Amino acid sequence: MRVKLAYGRTGLEVPLPDNRTTVIEPPHLPEVEDPAGTLREAMREPVHGPPLRDLLRPGQTVAITMCDGTRPQPRHLMIPAVLAELAGTVSPCDVTIVVATGTHRGNTRAELAQMLGEELASSVRVVNHDARDPEQLVWMGQHGQAVPVWLNRHWVEADLRITTGYVEPHMFAGFTGGPKTVVPGLTGLDTALTLYSAERIADPQAAWGVCKGNPVYDDIRAVAAAVGNVDFSLDVLLNRDHQIVAAFGGSLFHAHSEARHAARELAMRPVRGEFDIVLTSNGGYPMDQNLYQCNKGLSAAAAIVKPGGTIICAAECRDGFPDHGDYRRILMSAPSPHELLADIESRRSAIADQWQAQVLAKVLIKARVIMRTDHLGAAELSKAHLESTDHLGDTIEALLAEYGPDARICVLPTGPQTIPYVVGRRRSSVR
Fold first, then answer.
1. Whole-prediction pTM value?
2. What pLDDT shows up at residue 348?
3. C-alpha span between 360 and 311 (Å, rounded)
4. pLDDT digits (tens, 9 = 90+) for 319-345
5. Checking phi first, is residue 220 left (phi over 0); if not, alpha (psi -120 to 50) or beta?
6. What CATH code is carried by the domain that includes residue 244?
7. Residue at 376 is within a domain
8. Distance of CA 422 to CAs 33, 398, 427, Å?
9. Domain named Lactate racemase C-terminal: which ranges (predicted)?
10. At a CB cut-off of 8 Å and minimum separation 6, what does 35 contact?
11. Does 428 reside within a domain?
């Protein structure tokens, strides 16, 4: 059999043995017939709370969030839909689109034009949130479990605040979208580092699809409830081609609750037992732009690989580790994954990108990891405790021979768009 992995923009085919391979994919739901109409209906007939138009007043300033370029949000559909609802009441010159970068780099002018379309990117004010720029941040006090909260000034000072995003399981925050769009999407670096501290991430409840009792999600919710000031939330669910299959609008927590229940049914799949080899992707472009983002695909695979097994991840990584931030340095700062994890968990002061290094270290302690990428060399991957291959078929054949005739392989062609879990283990709660 041949399976096509989501890889970059084009995909990557790999030969696999029929009798030893399990392929796990999300069900392919078709795109809604009328995406613009579906979005409009979500804003006019919300899950909870008043329609968006009922919140509008002439002369208001409006801030609208959108995801950054590492996320497959259909911004070219969602942002125009929101602007259409504002039309006639709110002046375009009073609208600011804030890119919820979290701790990521800002998007370039060319990237924004690609994400929104040239005409829209040129006609509306678009700003990148910068978690490291004190001039962009407003102190909002401590909330949740002693979380110091700095929040984006453009967001705080707007009269009306609207979030847009998409919902899928997240490896330690439970789910994306909803409150996570603001916290940590629009927070300062200190806030994000506290929310994603080594202690919180180490908690067993900080996991895919878990909200109740998850210390990361609990504080995201607490901070968003205290200071997020979200007036209206618009989230969508996407199929494996990144097309809209459902939309949820309304008050922040009610809309997100409905969306994540639907996302769990769409994305999470049971399997019977662990596998010797798990072949995954990171969902293709734009999600596989760098190794940092690949932790999602690796974490999904780690949930079902046997201890001592092998994870193979195919990801383009056109943006490298990436070059900005501390991720490369942290990964290469210790001689082994065990020492890397111990070093991270022993630190009292937060380090940028430490949580992603912590996630990868845990994966590496459980299983061998081999990368198939066009933009990172074997030498630099080795320094980060990762192996490399240029030939997936040959590598898989050799691994199957090594593990023996009873060895099984599982394939996640769309990576973290499908989150597998082993039947019999306690299932996640999305409440």
1. 0.83
2. 54
3. 12
4. 999 987 789 999 999 999 999 999 888
5. alpha
6. 3.40.50.11440
7. yes
8. 35, 26, 9
9. 275-415
10. 74, 77, 243, 244
11. no
